[in-house]
Queue: 4 jobs
Job 1
Amino acid sequence: MPLRGVIFDMGGTLLHFHPREAEPGQGWQEMENTGADALRLFLHEQGYAVPPADEARRLNFAVMLDHWRRMGEGEPVNPQLGPMLHQVMSAWGLPPAALENGLIEDAVAAYIAPVQAIIRPLEGAAETLRRLHERGLRLGLFSNTAWPGVYHLQDLARWGMMPYLECAFFSADVGIWKPRAAAFQMALEALDLQPEEAAYIGDHLYFDIYGAQQAGMRGIWLSSAEWPASHQRGLTITPDATLEKLADLPAVLEKWL
């Protein structure tokens, strides 16, 4: 069946969330360190005692890593940044009463702000979306994320991508995570597509490619130094196509149109 639509991952596929200077494989942790440093400063300015910077970073990333691990192993969890930071700040020693007085919402904003400052598009991202849109393809997005989706919509709009996306779903908002088939089905239904009429493109073999193929879609892997082939959860995952750069996507899709 001819291809009628493409659904995109976000981080590592349309937008870079990792600092430019991060070493391959360290981008995610460096991103979380950026947020942890900002949260620590915010709490210090509010008069709370906080751990030393290195300890604060270590405790923060341990919480983030545990939530992603549990989700990836199939536990029925829905990682959201607010509850995760509640756990972080408890580990940092903040008194329980402090966490019940509206602090969490401000903590989320403080954590996200410096990360948004480093977010940038992959080369040719908006142009690629424009070309596919002009080709008549229906375009959508489903992203695994702990952030409230409103922040991601700001980033996508800032870099000129929202005019081309007919739908944008974020796991923390909808309570479904890739690789669950329901995540892909949600975007397919919004675009009025059957699985065999759509391709999904992402940078993670397990969450993106395995998930899309299990849902009956074609899976296109945007090769990533951050999530290399070893991140396959013991599975043999063979993408329907592999890209070295996003700008090559329109040419790859031509054979399926």
Job 2
Amino acid sequence: MRTELKLALRKGRTRRVNRSRTTVARGRIVDMVNIDERPKEADDRVVPGFWEGDPILGKGNKSQIATLVERTTRFVMLVRIPYARNAEKVAYLLAQKMETLPDFKKKSVIWDQGKEMARHAKFTVRTGMPVYFCDPHSPWQRGSNEDTNGLLRQYFPKGTDLSLHSQEELDSVAAQLNGRLWQMLDWWKPVEVFKDLLAKHASP
């Protein structure tokens, strides 16, 4: 009887599996901290140093560019990740980019729940910046980054190989975005606001 029942089951299993439990366990990033735990000072965009990040993907999801936007100034940085989104590689390259910033500009990063940030702890150890993860299917929680990624598609259309672009090209595109006038910045450019903050923190 038991053998006959097993053969009759559509999946050939002899016992039930708790689908919700296994799916959550399989997809969860270890030690992930939710955006709700991010310091409240990040909410009003007055305090600099809080960043939003996410990759844009190339043809067949085989190449990508990591995008970073600072919430106060809307300053953009782009990081070349030409091949697989290996979590070790992403943590290393993002940390390398963030190390170019002064300490007051390195408070935290929020990220989608993509597995490319599974090594977020290594990123934090190297940069001192905690990573907070957005809720699933909630792109508005990193709205500045979403808007920037939309602009970037003018330079890097969907379905193209993003590995063909050098880091120098990415820096040039970031400079163009940072040189745009923004109404929400009282018609200042992100680079101007960024430099103004640097000057204020450098003065005694």
Job 3
Amino acid sequence: MRFLLVEDNEGLATAVLDRLRMDGHVVDHAPDVSMAEEFSATADYDLILLDIMLPDGDGRDFLKSHRARKDETPVIVLTARSEVSDRVGVLDLGADDYITKPFDFSELEARCRAVLRRRGGSSSNAHRFGDLVFDALAGTLDVDGVTVALRNRELRLLEIFISTPNQIFSKAKLVDRLFSYDEDVSENAIEVYVGRLRKHLAGSNVEISTVRGLGYRMSKS
């Protein structure tokens, strides 16, 4: 998954970035509203973590403009304000959830998973497609009763495919979803990770096919 973290506290931002990246997520960091606007205009995110008090404005204004553009990317607000009225206010503006600072990182991770499950219409961390059972939290793929442990990039790539089966993803789009701006990678890296996933899927009724000139698609064979 690709996240956008909007947070001006350098220490907190570094800790959150390290934790989420350790989980295999791609995370871009914007320290202010201006950069958050720039990032959100040029990349597609699965989730936004949004601070309220920022150097050049209020995160709530970013949230309002975000929703005014009909952008449905889930937003979790990071707030130091614990008053009920403040929490109700950000939810009414379109936030999907909030977490009060200081917070435990395991709770932040759990809230991220919960918001993404709700947005995907699921109540479980396990995704089922064909004869596959993919558990993003455990990092495992079950193929016909055989469980395979996935590496981070494989896990996140499969997560993209299995959450929207039958959709075609170009190599450029997959690079955008799997790598952050500060990572210098070529589209050939996608071929490597797709090749690894295909080996894991061998023997199942699910395949990742190449759509010539367009990209890759996961579907039932």
Job 4
Amino acid sequence: MRVSVCVGNYTTTPYYIAGLEVPVCSMEELCFCLRENAFLLDVSLMRDELVEWIDRECGLRELAEELHRLIHRQGSLSAFVTMILEYVGFYDMLEIREVEQILRQGAGLSSIERRKGQIDYLVRSKKYMAAIRGYDGLLAKWSELEQSGGEVPAAKVWGAILHNKAVALTGMMLYGEGAECFKKAFDTDQNPEHYSAYLAAKRMELDESAYISFAAEQTIGYEYTLALEKKMERCAEDWKLQPEFQQLLEVRERRSSGDRHRYLEGVEEIIRNMKNQYRSSAGE
């Protein structure tokens, strides 16, 4: 059994890691976040604000001074993170070397690709509105670089940004906007995944008769429409096994039985859960 002794103070003033927007209140939490999100980190982590937090809030002046010197010597991100992990000792050296390798490999990525990875994390966390704002900013930055003659990644990265923005839009049930975004992604690099997602978004946006008319007008991808219908059937069957579906059935039975009080209680609980999910997706 491994026992870890906490290093530094546990603070009630959290530090929000740049790009991840994850609050940490101790050095152990900081180390955990750095290791689990190593592939998302960039040099924006190396801020005087973090060093000051380590000094003032965690009471680790010695470490803070070393990190401060490293920042102002323009040291590498991998050296900065490794210094923190080794000082705290929350992970063994094998794990620390793995993090160091990930950071060194990521050093070759463009700033756009790094930022995309950070925003993708927001989508996986269902922070959809924050992700949409992030992708819009990233696309604007891309356009600025092109206009100024700057270097930009391959076109498939542009398509991937549009695709993931569309995922966030459909997560907000904005299926029409999501479909348009998936279509732009497909027009960019002709990736079949973009087209399949485009059809799925249109399937959710339109009623059945309108979708049938839409699908009949498609000059490509007939096999994709067939595959989508099979997938929709599987999703419908899977939905029946979910706790949320069972909850809806129970509420419906209360209404049918005339139990108005318990019916309203069930409806209020469902609405409350939906509001909480919306607040989470909006980043509130």
